[in-house]
Amino acid sequence: MLMPSLFGESLFDDFMEGFPFGSFRNASSAGNLMKTDVRDTDQGYELDIEMPGFKKENIKAELKDGYLTIEAHTDEDRDEKDGTGRYIRRERYYGSCKRSFYVGKEVTQEDIRARFDNGILKLTVPKKEALPKTEESRYIAIEG
User: Which of 7, 48, 59, 104 could form a disulfide with 14 if both were Cys (CB 3.0 to 4.6 A apart)?
Assistant: First the structure.
């Protein structure tokens, strides 16, 4: 017997709709998190990181030991009620993600520019030349 579907093809299709991290049913969807485009320009690198569903205040960028780490978290409650106040659906989304990029130890925090616009975090990282290492002379003691 065919019955009209209240939730799409399966209950979880509708349940996961709008969830910023994608569907849990498809393990490969984890790769959809924080998709990043990196452009190499004459001055440096431009990164565009997709972060739909996140708010600017829930995103943190940190530079430590030459690694630029982007971390974000979300916690969203969504309630829908019918006319009598009974719940039709209640959803809560909680999650976090983190991604790191090696930018070099020569880059400082002041060098990096960041802007969050329409769910995309845009970062500009300048190119810095690594300082040449000076080779230390190591002498071997000669006995005799």
Answer: 7
